[in-house]
């Protein structure tokens, strides 16, 4: 008997009407025993397609998941948010549990888990928009309708550099029902999504669709993030699209944040350059932005104005036809380019719908590169 060991790379299937131009699936690679040639192919596919799916990976160890993730940035070793999650007021605090024997890998999901990888009797809670958005879908509609919870890059944005990639492994996925995702921003836009999908958009597509004038603006502008951004934003509420915050002056005052080390505050390019293709992606974490530094030296520090500018750049790119909403099956491992995409948790689970995922990323050993000088 011969075993088919052919490695295949295929584009991800997009639903009818979709205009997505990213995403690929790789089959025929043993992730527990990666060769250098395997990794070269994965790396090349990832940087050209941004999201890479491997089916049937439920068996892989947290160690193998970490090693695949870490191979993109071997000098990086600490979890993407480092110890910043310890801050009790951080909005990220309740959503993650760390695997004791592989601390760069986090368990996320929904429901009660008796035992998993050394974690005992854990209660997982899928993030729900009611805890983060200013307006909410009424409880009576909650199982049928949902929203993007929070569009983001996986990044501490204070001290630590953004991870290059993130891996997500679906260990347990509740039987599939579908939900209608509403934008609730007056556009009437909706997206039919599988329960608990992870939504992705491409930062390259976001850049490519801008006008020439806007392209020049985003190439020349830098984004300053708030210190301790996830504590800072914890008093504020999100827009209904999950794409950044409402401006009601509810952010935690700087003087009330944990001690601020000025050299940890991040001012990053608005566009990040792809290490393989050289293309530019608009990469902005919309809920953590605080100031904009323009090419001519002007600093915009009016928060409402900063957010409007960023929203106008980003909002067209999350329109339904540009979103890839992954339909999770148990064993799916999704590797995504965290410096070339934005992603969002989606969905509202019932209390008894058990979902178990493993997530891994490591803070970058260096910062993303911006556009080359013109
Ligand atoms: Fe994330």
TrEMBL record:
Gene3D superfamilies: Clavaminate synthase-like. The keyword Cell membrane does not apply. Its cofactor is Fe(2+). Keywords: Dioxygenase, Iron, Metal-binding, Oxidoreductase. It comes from the Eukaryota. InterPro entries: TauD-like_sf, TauD/TfdA-like, TfdA_dioxygenase. Residues 18-358 form the TauD/TfdA-like domain. Pfam families: TauD. GO terms for molecular function: dioxygenase activity; metal ion binding. Belongs to the TfdA dioxygenase family. This is Clavaminate synthase-like protein.
């Amino acid at each position: 008997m011969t075993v088919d060991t052919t490695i295949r790379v295929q584009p991800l299937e997009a639903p009818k009407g979709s205009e997505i131009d990213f995403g690929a699936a790789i089959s025929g690679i043993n992730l527990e025993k990666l060769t250098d040639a395997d990794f070269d192919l994965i790396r090349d596919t990832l940087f050209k397609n941004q999201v890479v799916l491997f089916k049937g990976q439920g068996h892989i160890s947290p160690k193998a998941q970490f090693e695949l993730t870490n191979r993109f940035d071997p000098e990086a070793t600490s979890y993407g948010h480092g110890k910043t999650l310890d801050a009790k007021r951080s909005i990220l605090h309740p959503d993650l549990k760390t695997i004791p024997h592989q601390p760069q890998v986090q368990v996320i999901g929904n429901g009660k888990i008796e035992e998993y990888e050394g974690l005992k009797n854990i209660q997982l809670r899928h993030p729900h928009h009611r805890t983060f958005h200013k307006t909410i879908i009424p409880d009576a509609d909650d199982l049928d309708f949902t929203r993007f919870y929070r569009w983001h890059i996986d990044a501490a944005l204070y001290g630590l550099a953004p991870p290059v990639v993130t891996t997500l492994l679906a260990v347990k996925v509740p039987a599939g029902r579908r939900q209608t995702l509403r934008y609730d921003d007056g556009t009437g836009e909706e997206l039919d999504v599988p329960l608990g999908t992870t939504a992705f958009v491409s930062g390259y597509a976001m850049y490519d669709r801008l006008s020439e004038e806007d392209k020049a603006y985003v190439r020349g502008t830098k984004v300053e993030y708030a210190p301790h951004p996830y504590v800072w934003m914890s008093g504020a509420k999100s827009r209904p699209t999950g794409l950044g915050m409402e401006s009601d002056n509810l952010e935690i005052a700087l003087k009330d944040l944990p001690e601020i080390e000025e050299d940890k505050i991040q001012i990053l390019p608005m566009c990040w350059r792809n290490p393989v293709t050289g293309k530019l992606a608009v990469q902005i974490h919309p809920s953590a932005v605080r100031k904009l530094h323009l090419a001519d030296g002007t600093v915009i520090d009016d928060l409402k104005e900063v957010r409007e500018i960023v929203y106008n750049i980003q909002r067209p790119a999350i329109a339904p036809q540009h979103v890839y909403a992954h339909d999770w099956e148990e064993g799916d491992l999704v590797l995504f380019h965290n410096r070339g995409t934005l992603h969002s948790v989606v969905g509202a689970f019932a209390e008894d719908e058990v979902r178990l995922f493993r997530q891994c990323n490591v803070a970058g050993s260096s910062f993303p590169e911006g556009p080359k000088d013109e």
